[in-house]
Amino acid sequence: MSGRHLRGKSAIVGMATAGMGEAPGFSAMELLGQAAVSAVADAGLALQDIDAVFAATSGHAFPTMSVVEYLGLRPRFFDGTNVGGSSFEMHLLQATMALEAGLCDAALICYGSNQRTAGGKLVSMSEPQWHETPYHPRHPITAYALAASRHMAQFGTTREQLADVALAARGWANLNPQAFARGPLTRDEVLSARMISDPLTKADCCLVTDGAAAVVLTRADRARDLHEKPVYFLGAGVANYHRSIVEMPDLTTTAAVDSGRRAFAMAGVDRADLDLTMLYDAFTINTILFLEDLGFCPKGEGGRFVEDGRIAPGGELAVNTNGGGLSCVHPGMYGLFLIAEAVAQIRGQTGKRQVQDCNLALCHGNGGTLSSQCTAILGSGAVL
């Protein structure tokens, strides 16, 4: 089954972010709370209307319990599935299923982190250590560097092409007042930046920031009565084949091949129909891998695909229009910020970076070390 019966059955009716970049003095839960309260208000609802909670955090073993307690909620349904940064694309699917089953009426998906001001570093302690420990890796960077090195060796991908991904992200960030990293960036600066894990320099790696985001979903029939333009859930797909990078079947091919295929089948759309593509760019190699695995170009052609500003402002494919994890925000788990940007674009609320006639958006989340892959497709009422 493709799950086509879920297409268009739910809609995002509220969205908000908080603490983007740096938010000194606030805990992760306080930032999450700010985004959640604002998203509920954006939907024209009250907190007591929320009867389902979906959350994943890196700081709470029982995230939904913590959220429910902090916000004073009494949900009928909750789920704390944590598959890394892709958790929130999965939560879209789970929330839609719960709404369609009548288990809830208004679902909150939320995340918050103060990773930057709490002194966090881009090192993941969630990675399995038994395989890699003897080699003293720096997770997660070392794992992504392995994928980048293999792609370069197998397909001739160059560091210059990786740099083009970073340049495109910065170009979009310069149009986004909320982006943390703004200002000029040249290819030479990317290539000459401090090497972190060969072949990835500091400029090939995502930011370490604070930030929170939240969205509210309800059933489509109710969404039409609320004051914000509904952004409909059209489809989603998930896939996961490994956790440790040394167990990844092929360092140049991710499970996005399958998550994307499933999402497109459920949504009943094709890549050519998309107006916006939001990809989890924790590292520059991610964007290249996901463009290939989601079918935008053949395997091995991703490096050449991103050359010459193709995914930058003014290029033929709008990718990561907020500036991505490379230049906008990356507070540990980035997947919900992909969704937030897609919602803002479909609503027409993104100012200078607005994609013209944006009605159909793909959000692709990545968790672990190229491990869990979750793809979701959202659209306006025009594509139902």
From TrEMBL:
UniProt cross-references to CDD domains, sorted A to Z: SCP-x_thiolase
Transmembrane segments: none
Entry-linked InterPro entries: Thiolase, Thiolase-like, Thiolase_C_2
Residue stretches making up the Thiolase C-terminal domain: 237-379
Name of one Pfam family that matches: Thiolase_C_1
NCBIfam families per the UniProt record, alphabetical: PRK06158.1 (NF004811)
Name of the protein in question: Thiolase
